[in-house]
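A quick aside before the break. I want you to see a complete sequence-to-structure record at least once, exactly as it would be stored in a machine-readable document. Don't worry about memorizing anything.
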Amino acid sequence: MKAPRYWSNPPDSPGAIARLLSPLAMLWRLGGKVLAASKSTEAAPVPVLCIGNLTAGGSGKSPMVAALLQRLAEAGRTPHVVTRGYGGTERGPYRVDSAKDSAAKVGDEPLMLAAFGPVWVARDRAAGARAAAAEGADLILLDDGFQNPGLRKDGAILMIDAGVGFGNGRIIPAGPLREPVGEGLSRADLVVLVGQPDARENCLSSWPQLAKIKVVGAELVPRQSGMVLEGDPVFAFAGIGRPEKFFYTLRHMCAQLVGTRTFPDHHPYSPAIIRRLIRDAMASNAMLVTTEKDAVRLPQMFRRDVMTVQVVLEPEDWSSIDALVQTICGAPRPG
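That is the input. The structure line, written in tokens, reads:
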């Protein structure tokens, strides 16, 4: 599903639909409290750092996890990712094999992340953490699961898309929030605010609650791989939380964006859909491009016909994130 437009309304004027859905939002919140009260919390054999968010939809969690996997490995740690594997059929605990597995089996985000380090799909996050620790992990990166009470978190980073903030400030389905802003921020150690500097400033001024927590700015930038799109005509498509971010990246690379197509997050691409996209690109004499996350969902026969544009999340300052890891894990073992 795509996010309803009223989710993006200003908090002081959320719209008639959001107000009508407020009773259902109360039921959603009550359901979350009942789940938390009825489920026991298990401590993992190794520290757990959760990368989560307060809203439905994309906020930069997966790029943050990928960046952390690389940084922690370079620092001498052995991080493993544990994730639910949304969109896949595997219940786990199961270690993703990027050479053999499909997005249909393990989900698109786990398959993408497996290129950067060990990834476990587990509907039961605590079981996934135990399996990862048994295979040598000295730190669990919990991809999402901030609202899941089954696994104790030793630290938590909340990701926020500066372009949308917390939307209209209402709880699902009246708005994009999974829980009230204040409650969520009180359980987090720091926030990574993703976006251009002006968007981050607007978000901080719109949500004064963020003044009570450490905020680290970050941007999604093209990965340095020799790809040059300056002046090239491209036809772009994406099925991610906010496709507009991908299209912005292409414009920032000075590509000539001649057409775009958006799909719901985690959308499975059939051969018929890709053939139509190829025809649309050819009609404009343009390259057909998509994201890393979308690329793993392409039918194998079409992967050479679509260019993948890779991005990396770059925090302005790693020091607060490094300090959080040091606090929950201690110093890395010598190599």
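Two observations worth writing down. The mean pLDDT is 91. The two ends are 46 Å apart (CA to CA). We'll return to this after the break.
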